Amino acid sequence: MSANIASYPDPGTERRPWLPRWLASESPIPWLLPAAALMIVFGIYPLIYAITLSLYKKNAATRKMVFDPTHNWVKILGDDRVWNAIYNTFFYTGVALVFQLTLGMLIALLLDSDRKGYGVLRAMMTLPLVIPPAVTGMMFLLMLNGSFGVLSRGIIALGLLPTGFSILGTADTAMAGVLTAEIWQWTPFMVLIMLAGLRSLPKEPFEAAAIDGATAVQAFFKLTLPMMSKVIAIAVLIRGIDLFRAFDYVKVMTDSGPGTATETLTSYAGRIYFGNADFPYASTVALLTLIIVIVVSSTFMKLFRVKL
Fold first, then answer.
1. What are the φ and ψ backbone dihedral angles of 230, each rounded to 5 degrees?
2. Which domains does the chain carry?
3. Residue 24: its pLDDT value, please?
4. What are the pLDDT digits (tens) for 257-282?
């Protein structure tokens, strides 16, 4: 019987005759080629093209591009709208992160239970995430309308705003209106990450703390937050990068207005590209955004020792 077993080839070394040799090999390269091709087409090539465009300037008279490597970068330094967009982008990112992280942790703590019905509540938390951001922006554009918007009418009824006040039409409040849509849609993302982190924490330290007489608040600050620090840092990093390129809500709800009150770097680059057709300068602003994201995220990762 042993002779019969020995006569069969090893399944691990046998090449399947219906597969090409390169697919039957153990090399991972054939399986990585599709992902690599997509990365080159949709990632590396557009980046190289944007860098190439930034080395040119648009001649307003002839509407042709002239090679001038330093023109656009020098222009950025003297462009007040770029500095305003940088300020708005950092403000937008910082405020949204604070609210989303705080609300995400609080809601996650409330939903961290195995009682009946909580699974349904956790599932319902994902519903805002499936709505396209442009649709969310349109929803809040209608709800914040000064004449018939349900949110605006509710705030006016509470006496917090005068009758007919337009939140999105006023420079002092327009950014708050856009942030409301952003926070509403993406807080559930933070909830899911915080919930996953809370569910992975060991129970023994909390049981020992309860025996020692620690309150729930003390356990949260002394145990939960320190043990969740890495999870929180990764969540902040992911959301921060995404927030820094905010475009949909700004475009749909205010179109960077009133004036430049809600203009971010990506919305300014879009306005240059589609409004002025100045492709080299728009590419330069987009590259500036990328550089800032890389510098800030790298610094954040070193400070908080985040490893992806």
1. -65, -40
2. 2-53 (no CATH), 75-304 (1.10.3720.10)
3. 65
4. 999 999 999 999 999 999 888 899 99
Note the pTM of the prediction, 2 decimals. 0.87
